[in-house]
Amino acid sequence: MQLQYCFETINKSCEKNCWPNSIRIPMYVFMVSTILATIAGNLAVIISIAHFKQLHTPTNYLILSMAIVDFLLGCLVMPYSMVRSVENCWYFGDMFCKIHTGTDIMLSTASIFHLSFISVDRYYAVCDPLRYKTKINKFTVLVMILTSWVIPAIFAFGMIFLELNMKGSEVIFYDEIFCVGGCFVFFSETSGIIASMLSFFFPGFVMICIYGKIYIIARRQARLIKDATIQIQFQANFVAKQHISRCRERKAAKTLGTIMGVFLICWSPFFFSTAISPFTNYIIPSIVIDAFVWVGYLNSTFNPMVYAFFYTWFRRALKMILFGKVFQTDSSRTVLYLE
Q: Where are the transmembrane segments (predicted)?
């Protein structure tokens, strides 16, 4: 098969993928379906939390902000990545390549920053409930949300536009990897380690430790509540109410722990390859790296599905959205779950 290039009249143009339609069409179908599911699912989460007053809680504000991150990833990043992945060509210019890459890194990093703060929120809710409302208030949540957006933005766009991601490996990049019509997510040894540590390994380790602590304390609380039920009837009624509250908090922690687990599973291949590829002379094929990127993108698709599976309130809210009941008078005051 004759080689085709992204720009036939330009020297050192990238090679274009010459896959048959039997491969290209399923790839486009899969990627378009993933994009639409990501946008629709996260839009449903955004509308639900923004519309229903009962859902205006600190934890849900963090979930809302994370859903906006995933929604923007589906709208602004994934469509262009789809064309790059299938065609192996970038037709949108060098400047937009930098903007796209910076936005991609920023939103991916912002997701795990949100998850880190959500784990802190759950820690206080389950492990220190008496001080939860004083520790996790609206101001605290606002600081968490701003931190989750601002630091990843400074890190991602600063690194890409100042070309810090290539520092120390410019010769390798321009001699062996660069070609006209490509848009590469390239990291040197140092920048690959720093990016992986900041965006994935360090916050992921912190979250695992926090959720481990939550799990241990939640089990201890469950045993104490079980032992307390042998007391007199008045105390039993009080314990029952406490039990319902604690069960709700533990379920929320379990749900968000599942979301964290999905994130770690989806993004582990990409960040591990990012960290080790510079040390192995970039022997990992670009098509494999690209596949890891899409596995990571799937995390943004799965999050709303986790909400739908675990949260009754989300299923009820989704039903009201689909049937247009959110346009009814006072629908925002609908009780989606019992306090």
A: 25-49, 61-82, 139-164, 193-216, 256-279, 291-314
Is 280 part of any domain?
yes
Counting other chains too, the contacts that 315-320 makes at CB distance below 8 Å and 24 or more residues apart are 317/44, 317/47, 317/48, 317/51, 317/52, 317/55, 318/44, 318/48
What is the Cα 12 distance to its own chain's centre? 36
Instruction: Domain count for the chain, please give it.
Output: 1
Is 6 domain-assigned? no
- Note the pTM of the prediction, 2 decimals: 0.87
Q: Are 67 and 327 in contact (CB under 8 A)?
A: no
- Give residue 279's domain range: 27-333
What are 32's two structure tokens?
């378009």
pLDDT-derived band at 291 (thresholds 50, 70, 90) equals very high
Residue with tokens 């494999």: 288
CATH number, residue 268: 1.20.1070.10
Tokens of 321: 């959205």
| Closest alpha carbon to 299 in 226, 221, 154, 200 | 200
Q: How many CA atoms lie within 13 A of 99 on its CB side?
A: 7
Tokens, residue 130: 């008496």
CA distance 299 to 119: 17
pLDDT recorded at residue 233: 44
- Cα–Cα distance, 138 to 108 (Å, whole number): 24
Torsions phi, psi of 5, nearest 5?
-120, 155
Dihedral sign computed on CA atoms, order 268, 205, 104, 29 = positive
Tell whether 1 is covered by a domain.
no
In a domain, 338, yes or no: no
pLDDT tens digits, 194-235: 999 999 998 888 888 888 888 788 777 666 766 655 554 444
